[in-house]
């Protein structure tokens, strides 16, 4: 990044404190060392607490100190559930700006949780949305429903899966080592119909439901698998 001609302000740098159950001093030192590892006096636009722990407050206090010092512009959480966020927010001085969670057609976030996060002003960042190994052995980019929708729009299945998230006001974080894929993943200027959004939102019911048992919570039984 330093060697490129891209100005720092044009880059959004996010990092995570991944070690759990540290005391405040150790958490501060760990994240500070990580930031120093980028380059001297580097700042991150967003620093996440990667996982909840028995008591996440000491780590959060460390993030708040780095926020005060301008080294973490915004703070975020990752893999926290609603109760864990509520507990932390009750004691936090700096509120979380974002929640990063695994979120894909096979592992969607519950609509109620999404609504709650929106009400709290916490942005949702979806991770592992394309990864075939994230939840099961199916590759969402080869799912026939996704393939059909992609071919109707003349787009790739990856673009459809990412666009589906954007239409739920969710930010996307696709990882790619391919220039062509990175280019594709940034071209999401098309619109899925409400019906297409609903079909994609119901795919997880095909994996998780059985007659008389509709899962995941809040899903609609569009395919009639539970009835
Ligand atoms: N909060 C958490 O606990 C959590 C959990 C999982 C992941 N994450 C974060 O989310 C990021 C992404 O998640 P992930 O690593 O699971 O991967 P992902 O972004 O869901 O999927 C990455 C895979 O998709 C392929 N891909 C990307 N764009 C594509 C395209 N347009 N067409 C075809 N294939 C495409 C990539 O291959 P190519 O390289 O060939 O493009 C790569 O194999 C990670 O870097 C990590 O930071 C966070």
From TrEMBL:
Residues annotated as site: Lowers pKa of active site Tyr: 16
InterPro entries recorded: AKR, Aldo/ket_reductase_CS, NAD(P)_OxRdtase_dom_sf, NADP_OxRdtase_dom
GO MF annotation terms: oxidoreductase activity, acting on the CH-OH group of donors, NAD or NADP as acceptor
Boundaries of every NADP-dependent oxidoreductase domain copy: 4-199
CDD domains the UniProt entry points to: AKR_AKR1-5-like
Keyword vocabulary terms for this entry: NADP, Oxidoreductase
Pfam families membership: Aldo_ket_red
Protein known as: MorA protein
Gene field: morA
Stated family: Belongs to the aldo/keto reductase family.
Binding site for substrate: 50
Transmembrane segment boundaries: none
